[in-house]
Write a structure and sequence with these properties.
37% strand, globular, disordered N terminus, 6-stranded mixed beta barrel, 8 strands, mainly beta
């Protein structure tokens, strides 16, 4: 998996095995996403990065991507979200979206989305 991480205005590119070719072609991968922070009562609670979960912000949770990574998520529309939490902790899901991010792309509770990291 490849990652582009923004750090203090600099862009660092790191990549794994054959993913370099995918990164260079701008390819996106299909993944399963879910929504967290709405009806589950997590809005306002602390995230793994230490900031509070703002359900009106374009943020998300991912198990391995570094905090601050920008990820383009597409469903019926596309939105760029910032990783600020860890999760999802449900097998088969790859990213948790804030309610605002899910609404922006027209997604309900779960859906198959495409992800592009560092767009």
């Amino acid at each position: 998996m490849f990652q582009r991480v923004r750090s203090k205005g600099l862009l660092k590119l790191s990549f794994g095995s054959a993913a370099f070719l995918l990164a260079m072609s701008g390819a996106m991968r299909a993944e399963v996403a879910s929504v967290y922070g709405g009806s589950d009562g997590l809005c306002g609670s602390r995230t793994a990065s230490g900031e509070r979960l703002n359900c009106a912000a374009m943020t998300s949770a991912h198990r391995t991507l570094p905090f601050g990574t920008l990820v383009e998520v597409c469903y019926k529309g596309c939105v760029t979200v910032r990783i600020n939490d860890r999760g999802p902790f449900v097998r088969g899901r790859h990213i948790d979206l804030s309610p605002a991010a899910a609404r922006a792309i027209g997604m309900g509770q779960t859906g198959r989305v495409t992800l592009g990291v560092g767009r």
